[in-house]
Amino acid sequence: MSLLDVLTQYRKDPSLAAGPASLLPDAETLDQSDPLRHKRDEFLLPAQSVYLDGNSLGPMPVAARQRAQAVLDQQWGEDLICSWNKHSWIDLPQTVGDKIAPLLGAAPGQVICCDSVSINLFKVLSAALGLNPGRRKIVSQRDNFPTDLYVVQGLQQLLGDAQRELEVLPEEEIEGALDDQVAVLLLTQVNFRSGYAHDIARLTRAAQAHGALVIWDLAHSTGVMPLELDQWNVDFAVGCGYKYLNGGPGAPAFVYAALRHHAALRQPVAGWMGHQSPFEFSPEYTPAGDIRQFLAGTPPILSMSVLDAALDVYRDVDIRQVKQKALDLADYFAARMMEFPSLQSLELATPLAHIERGAQLAYVHPQAFAICQCLIAEGVIADFRAPNILRFGFSPLYLSFRDLDKALERFAVIMKEELYALPEFNVRKKVT
Ligand SMILES: Cc1ncc(COP(=O)(O)O)c(C=O)c1O
Ligand SMILES: Nc1c(O)cccc1C(=O)C[C@H](N)C(=O)O
After folding, report:
1. What is d(CA 360, CA 192) in angstroms, rounded to the nearest whole number?
2. Among the atoms of ligand 2, which is closest to the Cα of residue 391?
3. Cα of 358 to ligand 2 centre, how many Å?
4. pLDDT over threshold 90, residue 160
């Protein structure tokens, strides 16, 4: 019986979970047969914590720390500006882009590392609208990550509201809203709150059948979801360096632009690094004919180098195994949770079907904020998303099934003894 089967049975008949004999295999057995268990040694993690927030900020790979030191001491420290050539700093956006590309199912030359997801969305959305003149509508999802919607609103303001119409729809209405007026379909694959995952291939086909272009935000996908952007004929995508890719706080993001668009597209943040020949210092802007045209200013070498090193963690892993382990961890967590009477007041808000999920689970509870603070105080680092969601991320390269047992034991005590009701756990923070 698979872990999902156990979870499904428990949900059908909760008395099974409450019974004396667990239907779940024990965590130690699951850890022993985990093909990714050796990857944990490549990360620096505090010994007492269980980190269930790698979907917001990945932990530090050993190689990232070493690279940061080398870039500071040997490259910047010793070789100064000569490092642009000597250590190939100038090529880093493309080098890192090409390292990310296999995780996206993208052939080389279509991915570049730069800026933030928000800035990259602005660039690709403008470019996509330029490639689809005469059409007014941008379709997106109401509970998309807000920055995606803000970028559209900012661009609307710039272009004049009358020219572009943003239609934000509930998830179930999106496909039906695609018609010949739609210029761009802009979606995030994995929803940051619920963990629901869209079918990129199907929605891309549906949008393109009406002549629309697609942009996918892969912030919660890259490094954990198997992706085939080339095969799915995706037009543009953006994604994040600091979540599953473990590139560190504020790590640069990336752009994917299908090769077929490189010649015709124009992106609006024209800057010298995106020029065909930056070091000719010409007063006229001629964009690079390739993916480099998405660059604007000088790349952040320190953080991009760290991301470059962090990506080496993926050198010997099969992304399908990563996704499978993420699902197994989540299924185990959800099923084991049902075995603790004190955890029954939390309601799962993530779909059960594997095909409809990313690598996180969302639980609804009116006291989610305080519970999350209390969990963190007990060394279980989870996430709260307003108004009432407790979010657990299952990043498979360093988490074990035994970690989940540890987390759930602490969680059960917190709920049983209502420790979260203590005033110190109800103090709002700037960053939640
Ligand atoms: C889906 C999604 N898109 C975009 C962002 C924002 O990315 P950035 O801060 O790099 O602009 C996030 C998270 O911060 C996110 O979860
Ligand atoms: N990017 C973040 C930050 O700078 C501070 C705190 C959290 C974040 C996040 O990544 C939020 C995240 N995208 C989310 O899914 O909620």
Report:
1. 9
2. 16
3. 16
4. no
